[in-house]
Amino acid sequence: MNNTGKQNLLDSLGQMSAPELRRLLTEHLTRQKLGLYWERNSIEHDKALNANVVLPRLVPELSHTPEDCTEHRNLIIEGDNFDSLRLLRATHSGKVRVIYIDPPYNTGNKDWVYNDNYVGKNDRWRHSQWLEFLFQRLVLARDLLTADGAILVSINDENRARLEMLMDEVFPGRRLGSFVWKTRSGSNDESGGRLSIDHEHVLVYCNPGFAFNGSLKDFSQYKNLDNDPRGRWKTGDLTQSKTYLERPNSYYPIQNPKTGIWYPCNPSRVWAFASETRVADPSTLRAKTMEQYIREGKVIFPTDGSEEVVIWKTREELLNAIASGRVPVRPKTKTLLLTAELPDLDFWVGKPVGFDRPWFKRHLSDLQSEVRPVSSWVRGAVEEESLDEFTVGLAAQRSGTGEHSVNEILGFNAFPYPKPNSLIKGLLTQATKPSDIVLDFFAGSGTTGQAVLELNTEDGGERRFILCSSTEANDKEPSKNLCRDVCAARIRRVMQGYGTKDGHSVAGGGEFAYLQLDKLDAADVALDATAEHAATLLTLRHAAAVPVTHQSSSVRLIAKGLDWLMVLCPLVNAQVLDELCDLPNRHQVTRLVVYAPRPKALVALLAERGVEAQVHTLRQALIQGQGGRQ
């Protein structure tokens, strides 16, 4: 409801009867929902929201085209990312598997522009404008993801809560989790409570079927020295990280049935499995009991004769042993497993007690997964990696630093506080597959593109990137072009080779098309759009690529499948008709798809010559996927 509608409603309240007011109030209350609210009707929305058509224009001199390159599979798009996303909605809907963005953080320090104006800290609608700004873009981005795609969003601690609720709004039920990235070792820039914020977050939302790559577990420790018919195994811990006070039913002694030797439980880490002696009905347990595992030979007891075994004949003798530390201990910490204050101490009097520890026999065949998941903690690059066999750890350099950053590659201070390449590369290592399309519509200095290129170099992958970056031109710097002079320049240097590593040139290889955006009124598309607009748009949509040079022929090849061929015909004459009739045999296809003027007449002319074809208007090709308010 706009402001006029609200005023009309307020004016009519005095004329409503009591039942009408109750009905209106009920409708208003039931329409409210739990979640994020921002004043969408009180701020100016994105200008020309879907009111015009966005068309791509290839700029060959700004593209990077190595020798023998016939098409560009990577894209750098110059312009407002809202317009870029509108274009991509028409060309890449459902094709992008991973989106990574580092949006402006809404700090009030003139770090972002909304509708050509800086948004300052004292702006009354600052938070609402920031949320609306992101909402419009996230809604468009959502439709670009594949069925198993994911979006990763960097955010600072101050704005995490707002962004997370906005993400829940746009991607309901799709939250996977978040990474915590240690951005610095410490800071004097403290809050009022002497709290130094040393981390940022990366929120992860995904469609069903997405999973991080993880890492294959190391199976080298699995042996089968005893020829166990169940296969290879290794020893594992029998305990869990709970105390005997937290899990009293898991604190009990166990006995080796072959030797009769008893083993005390660690009061700080009780047994991981329940005991049949501690539950009324073992059949109600979801997992096997300790006794079942012992009967199955899954509990490894110390070898007979290789350990110290003691029998305390009296309680006093046991207490003396405790006082002198001559009782079983935890191997690493040397913590006593028997102390005077523990319950059931008399149980140990008169029984053979072993000083070694039993272990669990973990068979390779029992593993629920052969892959270790990725940890949500992204440690600093100089921090020592904690030994963890259960998760894969990521590491990243501090914010604005790092080897081969944009400032190092270009040789000048080109971009303030860029995200380190190690962070994005680590995330994409876990999030992408070798053939994925990766989108960054807040590309800035192009770190995401560099990370994609380096990953492809390392694993032979064919990932493609789409980078959307604005010029950031303003009244003081009207000729400023961040996309051209920083983002594209950086990626070109990476592809050509930059710096050295181990005495060799560091190069990523590859190519990219540099696209600029033309916006036309929908009513003028048929008159003002060019054949090059149509060719670029159609090849992006159907071939996920841009030709290096546009064909000058009257029949332009757009894309080819196993049994179909798509062409563009800016005009139709007798020569074009002859060429179209020859295409199915020449390319050995059974289906012909044509974009051309006057489609009905062309269908009839082709049918007279025995050629069936689907013919669409050029205007349909240009406006498809771009209409409708979100």
Describe this entry's structure for a reader.
- The chain is 27% helix and 22% strand.
- The chain is built from 16 helices and 30 strands.
- With 630 residues, the chain is of the alpha/beta class.
- The mean pLDDT is 84.
- Helix 3 (81-91) packs parallel to helix 4.
- Strands 1-25-3-22-21-4-7-9-8-19-20 form an eleven-stranded mixed beta sheet, sandwiched between helices.
| Count of DSSP strands | 30
Distance between the termini: 16 Å
Q: How many distinct domains?
A: 3
Architecture of the largest domain in CATH?
3-Layer(aba) Sandwich
Question: In short, what is this structure?
Answer:
This protein is an alpha/beta fold.
How would you describe this structure in keywords?
single chain, alpha/beta, 3 domains, 630 residues
Secondary structure topology:
Layout: H1 3-12, H2 18-31, E1 52-58, E2 71-72, E3 75-78, H3 81-91, E4 96-101, E5 109-114, E6 117-120, H4 126-142, E7 145-155, H5 160-170, E8 175-182, E9 199-206, E10 215-216, E11 233-236, E12 254-255, E13 262-263, H6 290-295, E14 299-300, E15 309-311, H7 315-324, E16 352-354, E17 359-363, E18 371-372, E19 374-380, E20 392-396, H8 406-410, H9 421-431, E21 437-440, H10 447-459, E22 464-469, H11 482-496, E23 498-501, E24 504-506, E25 513-521, H12 525-528, H13 531-543, E26 546-547, E27 556-560, E28 564-568, H14 574-587, E29 591-595, H15 599-608, E30 614-616, H16 618-623
Parallel strand pairs: 3-22, 3-25, 4-7, 4-21, 8-19, 19-20, 21-22, 28-29, 29-30
Antiparallel strand pairs: 1-25, 2-26, 5-6, 7-9, 8-9, 10-18, 11-17, 12-13, 14-17, 15-16, 23-24, 27-28
Helix pairs in contact: 3-4, 4-5, 9-10, 10-11
